[in-house]
Amino acid sequence: MNLFISLIFILTSSNFSFAGGEENTLSSQTKKTQHESFDHSHSAWTTLLSKYVKLSDDKKSSAVDYKSFDKNSLNSYLKTVSSVSKKDFSSWTKNQQLAFYINTYNAYTVKLILNNYPVTSIKKIGSFFKNAWKQEFFKLFGEDYYLDKIEHKKVRESGKYKDARIHFAFNCASIGCPALLNEAWTAKKLKDQLDSAAKNFLSDQSRNKVDLKSRAVRVSNIFKWYGSDFEDNKMGYSSLKGFFKKYKRSLGKNKEEQELLESKSYSVKYTGYDWGLNKH
Hints:
The protein is mainly alpha-helical. The protein has one domain. The chain is built from 11 helices and 7 strands.
């Protein structure tokens, strides 16, 4: 009798352990599948951008239809973004990480505007002590996050993503900001997207232009605020003027202007910044 009871106990324990082991295995497989299935093409975000962002024909500016923007689809995309763990993120390539940060920043900026719409400017959101970029209104990697934490703490100050052209990728929902693309940033296209964004912004004569008569280059305040970011020789230039020289064919509209940019013998002046909402 005792032997029979013992056998039942052993079999029961074995079945329990097997079931538990199977459950753990399935759980691990599920986590692995979730990690591998993250959509690095950010197709859900592209779908929204292509529908609600109107890019100008010359791709130098864009406007967002905030009034009609699909909040449910945006929240669904952001839910996927916010579910990414630190461990998974750390296993991605540098380009996958940077594309993720740019898309996340831009998508949460749209959400911030929608949360406060109608609003005439992002600068109207928040207070003097805690402006729009300091508002902790979302979670990332299980932590409370704010927009500045992504752009400045995680990207600019980390030293990992040394590319000043990110300033043409992060969009602050303002007219003065470089265009919000009507497609997501992706690791596969990141190099070309950054190059195109820089060229498109620099060639916008309403914000950046060469003045031959006064031998001055008048550019957006972005270059005033983040000028030091353009001093990293890793990208082929070690100064703001070096950056302008590299992109002289975009900033200079003719041979004479391009020659001035090549010479670096000019003054740099700033044209200001339009904080009006980038809406249509």
